[in-house]
Amino acid sequence: MSQTELANLVFKDHPTLTRIIDLLVKKGYVERLPHPQDRRSFQLHLTDSGVSKVTSLRPKILQIREKAWENLDDQDFEEFKRILNTIYQNLGGQIQE
């Protein structure tokens, strides 16, 4: 994934995302590799350490997600997604499902 693709995905501007990526590289979770078609850019890849960190955090993330949705049903979740998609479209984004 390129840094531009990631910036668009997480709604961060490039300077902010660069600082975050620099920190992740320093911690050994992410590596920047030369883009095969564009020498001016890099592709981002999780390192083995990054994959391990994601794997170890996944149960906690799922626990938080379950707590957030515990009194809501599937219909509530679908309505929430619909509202977020509308807000995103209003702000000029394109929904990717």
Helix and strand layout, with pairings?
Blueprint: H1 3-10, H2 14-26, E1 30-34, E2 42-46, H3 48-69, H4 74-90
Antiparallel strand pairs: 1-2
How would you explain this protein's 3D organization?
This protein has 2 domains: 1-46, Arc Repressor Mutant, subunit A (Orthogonal Bundle), CATH 1.10.10; 59-97, no CATH class. The chain is mostly helical and 97 residues long. It contains 4 helices and 2 strands; from the N terminus they run ααββαα. The protein is flat and about 45 Å long. A two-stranded antiparallel ribbon has the order 1-2.
Annotation keywords:
single chain, 97 residues, mainly alpha, Arc Repressor Mutant, subunit A, 2 domains, two-stranded antiparallel sheet, 10% strand
Summarize the entry for a quick read.
With about 100 residues, the protein is mostly helical. The chain has helices spanning about 5-10, 15-25, 50-70, 75-90, and strands at about 30-35, 40-45.
Biggest beta sheet attributes? 2 strands, antiparallel
Class inferred from helices and paired strands: mainly alpha
Radius of gyration over C-alpha positions, nearest whole angstrom: 17 Å
Question: How many E-type strands?
Answer: 2
Through-space gap between termini: 18 Å
How large is the count of helical segments?
4
Going across the biggest sheet, name each strand in turn: 1-2
Report the uncertain regions. Answer: none
Number of domains: 2
CATH topology of the largest domain, anyone? Arc Repressor Mutant, subunit A
CATH architecture of the largest domain: Orthogonal Bundle
Overall CATH class of the largest domain? Mainly Alpha
Strand residue content: 5-15%
Please provide the ordered H/E string of secondary-structure elements.
HHEEHH
Helical coverage, percent range: 55-70%
